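Internal ticket #5521
Category: modeling
Description: The requester needs a full-assembly model to guide mutagenesis choices. All entity lines are attached below as received. Residue total reported by intake: 255.
Assigned to: D.W.
Attached entities:
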Amino acid sequence: MVIPLLELKDVSRRFGGVAALSDVSFSVPAGAVIGLIGPNGSGKTTLMNVISGVDAPTKGAVLLDGLPIQGVPANTLARRGVSRTFQHIRLIPELTAGQNVTLALHAPSAGPFDILLRLPRLRRIELDRHARAVELLRKVGIGQHASTLAGDLSYGDRRRVEIARALASEPRLLLLDEPAAGMTHGERTSLRDLIAGLPALGVTVLLVEHDMDLMMSVCDEIHVLNQGSSIASGKPEEVRANPRVIEAYLGAEDA
Ligand SMILES: Nc1ncnc2c1ncn2[C@@H]1O[C@H](COP(=O)(O)OP(=O)(O)OP(=O)(O)O)[C@@H](O)[C@H]1O
């Protein structure tokens, strides 16, 4: 039996009287792009928080390579191969795209003596880190903007820098929370190609996104949440035609 990269078993999260997640179960096989959709407030971000260690479930298990990780802090999970982007951009606008990515890189970093004595090793480490950041920016299609201030980049390119930052820890599982939000049509098309290419780089993707065209064209499988519960799972075209899904979205529009 092949152990999935990620498995959720009856994951629940309550906030006081609010059941943000109720017994959500599904798995994410290695090498896939898996989508998570649902109307506003259905629990998608809560689930991303629980998987990435930003939050812990009230009940249930989150397994990475078959081992429980619920409650493990985000920085530990990052070392174990789980990385994410957030709904709201978290770059430092006064730093260049390259510097923003460099900040997210793991060691090798300089030691106190390297810094104090400005040993040649320090310069070499800095050059290596910069080269690695540029390589990551190239992977997401904006290598040419490595020296541009993050604050001067277009919205779509800032989102790409965020993805490059998330790739800096060499994740096996990348959680993308609404990466297309605020993007133009053209930016969405290139984001789609970027996401579709991630499995070939060894990165499995769990994607939360409201852009249905993007989801339909990039996901191998989609899971649908409504009011914290899983209401449908399947191939994009199956999910799109599912009456429960249509009803959940129409209901949300009426609200
Ligand atoms: N920290 C919190 N404290 C209290 N309630 C919360 C908290 N976080 C989320 N909730 C509630 O949990 C439910 C699910 O919220 P969540 O943000 O996960 O939904 P979502 O599907 O990501 O929504 P959106 O598409 O609008 O981002 C909502 O009712 C929300 O109000």
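Resolution: model delivered.
Comment from assignee: The pocket of adenosine-5'-triphosphate is lined by residues 15, 18, 20, 38, 40-46 (CB under 6 Å).
Ticket closed.
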